[in-house]
Design brief:
Shape: globular
Strand content: under 5%
Number of helices: 8
Helix content: over 70%
Number of strands: 0
Structural class: mainly alpha
Distance between the termini: 51 Å
Radius of gyration: 19 Å
Length: 179
């Protein structure tokens, strides 16, 4: 009903394009991931240094969570290990492909960091992709949910707290720490 009211389309028109509520949600999730993928591709392909790219990646993830909250929440809570793949709609596979494309971008970004001696050689790249994703996502959620408390507790802005957290995360893999 909310979608119909906000879009000025009838229920019949909406369901001419979508199989049901889950299909609508699936397309919302996919669209958010595809936007994030596009933004990450621009960042990774850019001329900035490794650390500057990391902060840009964090900003892109923050924009994703802010602009596509349903997508971000669904991605972060989706459990695919025991999913019956045969019963999934086509949009599910598009979501999985977008997620895989994002992971590949981050993998190559970290590998490039190793090649340029910015990242420690001993890190396990694929595991680090997931750890960085979850660390940044958790930090963003913390600030979104407890930003006012953190600002008051540490006498800093939410943005400054995030930047401090980003530095802690990136320093975990860098060859030489940044201050």
């Amino acid at each position: 009903d909310d979608i119909c009211r906000l879009s000025d389309y009838s229920r019949r028109t909406i369901y001419a394009y979508y199989a049901g509520k889950e299909d609508i949600l699936g397309h919302i999730v996919r669209n958010g991931l595809m936007r994030l993928e596009q933004n990450l591709q621009i960042i990774v392909d850019g001329e900035a240094g490794f650390v500057d790219k990391f902060f840009a990646i964090c900003d892109a993830m923050a924009d994703y969570q802010r602009n596509f909250p349903q997508s971000a929440e669904s991605v972060n809570t989706m459990q695919t290990a025991h999913t019956d793949m045969a019963s999934q709609p086509p949009v599910f596979f598009q979501i999985m492909e977008a997620g895989n494309a994002i992971n590949r971008l981050l993998f190559h970004y970290l590998e490039d960091g190793k090649q340029s001696n910015a990242v420690r050689k001993e890190i396990e790249t694929e595991k680090s992709v997931y750890i960085l994703w979850s660390s940044v996502t958790s930090l963003l959620s913390l600030v979104a949910n407890k930003g006012s408390f953190l600002e008051e507790r540490f006498q800093t802005s939410a943005e400054e707290f995030l930047h401090y957290g980003y530095k802690q995360i990136i320093n975990s893999i860098l060859e030489f720490r940044i201050e």
